[in-house]
TrEMBL record, chains A, B:
This is NADP-dependent alcohol dehydrogenase. Residues 189-386 form the Fe-containing alcohol dehydrogenase-like C-terminal domain. CDD domains: BDH. PROSITE patterns: ADH_IRON_1, ADH_IRON_2. SUPFAM superfamilies: Dehydroquinate synthase-like. GO terms for molecular function: alcohol dehydrogenase (NADP+) activity; butanol dehydrogenase (NAD+) activity; metal ion binding; methylglyoxal reductase (NADPH) (acetol producing) activity. Signal peptide: none annotated. InterPro entries: ADH_Fe/GldA, ADH_Fe_C, ADH_Fe_CS, BDH-like.
Length: 386, 386
């Protein structure tokens, strides 16, 4: 097991009818900017619950944060924060709204040249404007971590940021919100959480026995509840386990003491930036090719995953590892998630070279747990995913 | 899954040679009281590592905190805290030293009549004097939770306390400390952590699928590493997984959203108070009888535990559940832990009645996950454990 430091101070308020507890979490003298996305919260009743809970607090709203939170939109919100002397941010939404809010939390106190530097120069945020979240879409785990990914349409870039100042003060997780989420988004959430675990697990054994078992626990739970969530989002048992699994998949716990990969995300982000493909779907496109291309380096862990998560008992290590990849692809397909780039666009020729070139330009010369995935290898993986 | 609130702000610094990081965690202008136990830290090198790391900080020492931290001893430490204007506490030890430090953290800022009230009246501590820990004995999980148990010899009482103000600011966990722990203490630690998980898991199903799997992950890991830890404490892979399992067993995570039992602890504490039996051993004495006595209420979970942790595949639910209890007893025996009260004292007659009477006197009329374990039932369980 590798050495590690772990601290996660976010307060989780989980369960039925918990949104009303908002009133206990935000200081009464706060001046709140309520951030949300396309406005679905106004249709499904969540907005009303939030406003009722905040009846005694001064609240200004900023809606319209798009999926893949867009820098240009966020810069308008930043202007509101400054002109209105906002003291507290409240994200009501999924990963995009929460990530956007994290950017604003950092940017509000940033004293540098332009907030884009936080992303471009990867500046860690030690202290941000305090914020909380009401999660409306389980998927990214952003509600209990300190990272964010921001998109800039102008340059077709999608970059990550983070730092210990960007943990939410609190996050409210009411699994009942799932009843109003379209099936497409539910499938995305399941795929996103599943792949988050894989990125922190599908590397090589380092003797972190407990972390491996925790990772497998999340995968097993997602496999168990996925069909139930899609069939009947009012199934509270399935919904609550789905929601808690998404949070635990990326709150830092399972990555402690182990090597992590994240190449699937790095490559996947480019597919979103280039084609606008849903984030989760880009992961399902890249992961299988990535595991096949890096089969030798990952096969021991792939076989363990096959045994423990998919109950594959027959065959050699290689057989089990290969079967585990097939099971993963099959799992995505059963969620209605396509796993080839050509399923999403007919305009895929040249994509591999383009992504490879971008990584070269950025100096991303060695991705993955061994920092050995050079741009030419990335190119091959993307081609395998056509 | 039940509703829950979860927040654990303790920073964990885990791994080889991490004690030197103390210097980054304690403010340089702090006036530190270094608390420890019987002095083994002066023989095994941990004391020297701590003092080296704190070379630039003002430190006063208070040693001699006994196993089952004694109120009378702690009151002397409290006097030092007040006369010396201590601003920061540092526990260097196992669960007893850390629990004692938590009491001092609470007592130092307590404004009531006498600090004993914190225990007797179960007063939650919202704010304590800040403290950190250097863990020397994996077992209780006290290094990452906000609870403590304090003993008072004068009245033969052992009572619990806690509150959100009693999380350590940081805890340093260097698995190498295990090399200097006597086998008896290692066996106790393994048993303690194992039973902590059982108390939060061996109840009845509530659809908390992920929490169940996390609990089983810790149990599986302890089962896997226990013989290795006892055979060779320098086996770092085994030591590090043992240490992290103990912390995760009682840092609050696996108890979220599920009913918890804790009757084994409540009864076990009495055996320690009456006979001075090691805490962990009292748990191994009570747990099997408790599970047999409450077999009907717990058999579904016992069978699941048997299947997933002990790979019991044959037989009915009842068969699997019963076999799981036997496997647990066998596990304790293999650790060198006796599971009958008569193995520890010949003076056991009347113990069951005495404990039952104490629970009646305290108004503890319904223990366990159903609050249905009345003192007469406790009496029967203790007799079964003779």
């Amino acid at each position: 097991m590798n050495n590690f430091n772990f601290k996660n101070p976010t307060k989780i308020i989980f369960g039925k009818d918990t949104i009303e507890q908002l009133k206990n979490e935000i200081p009464e003298d706060a001046k709140v900017l309520l951030l949300y996305g396309g406005g679905s919260i106004k249709k499904n009743g969540i907005y009303d619950q939030v406003r009722t809970a905040l009846a005694n607090v001064s609240v200004i709203e900023f809606g319209g944060i798009p999926a893949n939170p867009e820098y240009a939109v966020l810069m308008k919100a930043l202007e509101v924060i400054k002109t209105e002397n906002i003291t507290y941010l409240l994200a009501v939404g999924g990963g995009s709204v929460i990530d956007g809010t994290k950017f604003l939390s950092a940017a509000a106190l940033y004293e540098g040249n332009t907030p884009w530097d936080i992303l471009k120069e990867n500046i860690r945020t030690e202290k941000g404007l305090p914020f909380g979240t009401v999660l409306t879409l389980p998927a990214t785990g952003s509600e209990m971590n300190s990272g964010a990914v921001i998109t800039r349409a102008e340059t077709k870039e999608k970059l990550a940021m983070g730092g210990p100042g960007l943990f939410p003060q609190f996050s409210i997780l009411d699994p009942q919100v799932i009843t109003s989420i379209p099936e497409r988004q539910l499938a995305n959430g399941l795929t996103d959480a599943f792949t988050h675990v894989l990125e922190q697990y599908m590397t090589y054994p380092t003797g972190a026995l407990l972390q491996d078992r925790f990772a497998e626990s999340i995968l097993q739970t997602l496999v168990e509840v996925a069909p139930k969530v899609l069939k009947d989002p009012t199934d509270y048992k399935a919904a609550s386990n789905f929601m808690w699994s998404c949070t635990m998949a990326l709150n830092g716990l399972i990555q402690q003491g182990v090597p992590t990969d994240w190449a699937v995300h790095a490559i996947g982000h480019e597919l979103t930036a280039l084609f606008g493909i849903d984030h989760a779907r880009t992961l399902a496109v890249i992961a299988p090719s990535h595991y096949k291309f890096n089969f030798e380096a990952k096969k021991e862990k792939l076989a363990q995953y096959g045994e423990r998560v998919w109950n594959i008992t027959e065959g050699s290590i290689d057989d089990k590892a290969y079967a585990a990849i097939e099971k993963t692809v099959d799992f995505f397909h059963k969620l209605g998630i396509d796993t080839k780039l050509s399923d999403y666009t007919k305009d895929y020729e040249g994509t591999a070279e383009k992504i490879s070139q971008r990584f070269t330009d950025r100096g991303w010369l060695g991705l993955g747990e061994h920092q050995s995935l050079s741009p030419d290898k990335v190119e091959k993986i993307v081609k395998m995913a056509y």
